[in-house]
Protein: ABC transporter permease
Amino acid sequence: MSTLRRLLALGTGRFGILVAGLVVLIALISLVWTPFDPGVVDVRNRWADPSWPHVLGTDNSGRDIASLLMAGARTTVVVAVGAGIVASLLGIALAALGALTARWVRESVAVLVDILVAFPVLIIAMMISAVWGGSLAVVIWSVGIGFGVNVARVTRPELRRVLHSDFVLAGRAGGLSTWQNLTRHLLPNVAPVFIVQLSWAMAVAVLAEAGLSYLGFGAPVTQPSWGVLLSDLQAYIAVHPLTVVWPGLAITLTVLGLNLLGDALREAADPTLAERTPSARTPVPGVVA
Structure:
């Protein structure tokens, strides 16, 4: 609870929670209601200006942009959560192998992680797409693998540090197995670092999904997606620039919110940062009359 209070005390934390909560809420609402059917084409209302009932206007097919953005939020949430789950499982597995196993296994895992970190997430996604084709599953797995090794690289040293703590040694002396020590003592103590990395992984997932969908490697054109919508509308940016603003703004705010939430989580979870106080001011001698 103290970490949550410190998080809410930070402006970046409140902004990140607000943005993430709003995106999730919109995605849930879009499951049962959108102003218009996102897939319905209305040629008579092509390029309608923002007004009632099309509050954000329409695109080149007459589809309501607000409805497309609401439906696209579902894709964003699915990719962010899915990539976060894959990154979590892979990161914890690699970190545990790199911290709790025999020396030759630890060193092999460290070398493997260093090699995989060298590959950017988008490159990994394009390589996988070239084999299995573009889809949301490709985005989820590529981002999850790409950021999972980053999670492992950051979490592994923390696990090694906590591994030599007195309470871990006492648990081992009391008969706890390696798995019991991992779940009871090690993972809870590295959770703050892990959660911060996870929030950044979700931000990268949102950006990667939009970028890959824009390039044709992500969501199929029949599925509402902010990246697909941006790709469809960018050809008309010279004549209808406002229509491109909405999906671009949605992507920017979501990624910014998740990144700021990650920074705030790092600051709130670090006791040394939370308890740090400004240095005392040097007293200025008064002027003698």
About this structure: Residues 2-42+50-271 form a domain with the MetI-like fold fold (CATH 1.10.3720.10).
